């Protein structure tokens, strides 16, 4: 399938700031006891690489989920398959982060420096990033966290549109389709539960 060939392996993350390669995900994993996220692939004009949008409910309050997705310096500890992560600089609500995603042998790891804008209000929080430099042709996306069920839970939307400079084998794309995003949501929920 031509469209499927262009999908990316996403490991968020993260990148919340910078992350990366994303794909369609299956319903195998649950987000911290919640239903698995709904994942959509959206065509983007001018590119063969679609955008991936995942939406789900995490059984933790928004403030806790926000701490997990907004602190890029802690991605290595909190997000799946992150080899290294650091906050390069912060100026007001702009956070420049460097995140390296661990790729399976024999592929090289993928590093991106991104600039993310954080917005926080009583209606919710968002982190929107764009690529500054790195191992990608482009890498942009967002985390959006809003109160759900009276603030006891979080409605989370993760969006990523990224393409590495090198092509990825089909077996990696397949693995991403089945695991990447549900695993990401599940891990965010687990880490949010640890936040004091």
From TrEMBL:
Q: Which organism is it from?
A: Polyangium spumosum
The UniProt similarity line reads:
Belongs to the ribosome association toxin RatA family.
Q: Which Pfam families match?
A: Polyketide_cyc (PF03364)
Keyword Signal recorded: yes
- Protein name, per record: Coenzyme Q-binding protein COQ10 START domain-containing protein
UniProt domain Coenzyme Q-binding protein COQ10 START: residue ranges: 58-185
Provide the alphabetized UniProt keywords: Signal
Q: Residue span of the signal peptide, if any?
A: 1-31
């Amino acid at each position: 399938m031509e469209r499927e060939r262009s999908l990316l392996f996403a490991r968020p993350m993260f990148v919340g700031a910078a992350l990366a390669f994303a794909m369609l995900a299956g319903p195998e994993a649950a987000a911290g006891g919640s239903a698995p996220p709904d994942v959509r692939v959206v065509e983007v004009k001018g590119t063969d690489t679609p955008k991936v949008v995942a939406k789900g409910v995490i059984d933790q309050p928004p403030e806790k989920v926000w701490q997990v997705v907004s602190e890029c310096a802690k991605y290595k500890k909190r997000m799946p398959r992150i080899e290294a992560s650091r906050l390069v600089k912060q100026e007001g609500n702009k956070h420049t982060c460097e995140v390296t995603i661990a790729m399976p042998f024999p592929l090289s790891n993928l590093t991106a420096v991104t600039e993310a804008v954080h917005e926080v209000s009583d209606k919710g929080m968002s982190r929107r990033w764009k690529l500054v430099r790195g191992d990608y042709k482009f890498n942009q996306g967002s985390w959006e966290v809003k109160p759900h069920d009276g603030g006891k839970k979080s409605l989370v939307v993760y969006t990523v549109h990224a393409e590495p400079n090198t092509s990825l084998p089909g077996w990696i794309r397949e693995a991403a389709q089945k695991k990447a995003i549900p695993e990401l949501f599940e891990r965010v929920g687990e880490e949010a539960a640890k936040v004091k």
